[in-house]
Write a structure and sequence with these properties.
It is a single chain. By secondary structure, the chain is of the alpha+beta class. The chain folds into two domains: 73 residues, Immunoglobulin-like, CATH 2.60.40.10; 223 residues, Immunoglobulins (Immunoglobulin-like). It has four helices and 23 strands.
């Protein structure tokens, strides 16, 4: 009898344990770690009286607004909308779990100013020989999936002992400017380094597309006939500026060449034989650090045009895969605004209504 009682007791305990762990299995989900959050606004500039809508996303693109707390000028708000009748700048940030977003500045105006669409630039210092460079390439793909407002440039470098068919030799001045050895490295709006590991810090890049809209915009027009290129970059100003410089790049996409890969990305294959290199810097129409724009041309209401006429570089593989990038940098070498364009197109200014 004692044996039977022990058996029943053991069986009962076993049943309880199985039931407990089964219940736990149904109740709890294993979640991947969230590395960061960022704020997204319906507009970076608002007219007084207009509603500002704010959403909170994780770096993976998941909307967690309902579970977040949003602060405007340091004070928490109810919900995710805000309105004011006062002209000025409001500072916005969000908290989710133990994470905090970057602070955004949103401008409320009386409607008399002209604002332009805000875009951000990422310059990726990379190389076909660089085994860790696919990490930044993957991060760029993640950013591109979440925003159309980021412009990418791949600057191929080839330190001593390495080879790269797409090396851009004239980037030494840039390397000296950022003063950051090693590869890969991504820089946002020229002077801010993309935090490691870049795929876990997508929100850092996206935050540069948010905040107050710039008071200058660009429009690119180009025509390619045979080997000859005619290129115009128009710049419009809605406030006075001084100390600006213009940079114009020629990029080529769809370049196929083996990429050394030490990462787990791209299925961990090393090398990636048919790797497609996009946004590859081929030439600059200006100094790589920028050509100065006269202060007389950068006043409120001014529109200035910089024109370029040149032959396509001999190393271009397919002219149909070219694109132009133009951006303005300020006296601190930081990007004010940027625009890209395919060939044989004529753009207009991106003025916000």
């Amino acid at each position: 009898m004692m044996k039977n009682k022990r058996f029943v007791t053991f069986a009962s305990l076993l049943f309880i344990c199985v039931a407990f762990f089964s219940a736990c299995e149904e109740k709890y989900d294993i979640q991947e770690g969230i590395t960061g959050i960022y704020l997204v606004t319906n507009e970076n500039s608002r007219i007084v009286g207009q509603t500002l809508e704010l959403n909170v996303n994780t770096d993976a693109g998941e909307n967690v607004t309902e579970q977040s707390t949003i602060f405007v000028n340091g004070e928490p708000i109810d919900g995710n909308t805000y309105n004011t009748d006062e002209v000025g700048i409001v500072s916005v940030r969000a908290e989710y779990l133990n994470l905090s977003s970057e602070v955004l500045e949103v401008e409320y105006s009386d409607g008399s100013e002209i604002n332009f669409r805000k875009r951000a630039l990422v310059e990726d210092y990379t190389g076909t020989w660089c085994g860790w460079c696919p990490r930044v390439a993957r991060a760029i793909e993640l950013v591109d999936e979440q925003s159309d407002d980021v412009v990418f440039v791949a600057i191929h470098r080839s330190p001593s002992g390495t080879q790269d068919p797409y090396v851009f030799e004239d980037a030494d001045a840039l390397e000296s400017l950022i003063n950051t050895p090693g590869y890969p490295k991504g820089f946002i709006n020229r002077m801010t380094q993309w935090d490691f590991p870049e795929p876990d810090n997508v929100g850092q890049v996206l935050s540069f597309t948010q905040g107050a809209n710039p008071k200058l915009g660009l429009a690119i027009s180009s025509e390619i006939s045979g080997n000859q290129v005619d290129l115009d970059v128009d710049i419009q100003f809605s406030q006075d500026f001084q100390g600006l410089k213009l940079v114009v790049y020629l990029l080529e996409n769809d370049l196929v060449y083996p990429q050394v890969n030490y990462t787990a990305y791209y299925n961990g294959v090393n090398p990636v034989e048919d790797y497609v290199h996009d946004h590859t810097l081929r030439a600059t129409m200006t100094d790589v650090l920028g050509d100065p724009i006269s202060g007389e041309e950068t006043l409120t209401g001014s529109i200035t045009t910089e024109s370029f006429n040149f032959d396509l570089p001999s190393e271009i593989e397919n002219a149909q895969n070219l694109e132009f990038v133009a951006f303005i940098i300020d006296e601190n070498d930081e990007v004010v605004n940027v625009r890209k364009s395919e060939i044989n197109t004529s753009q207009t200014f991106e003025i916000l209504e």
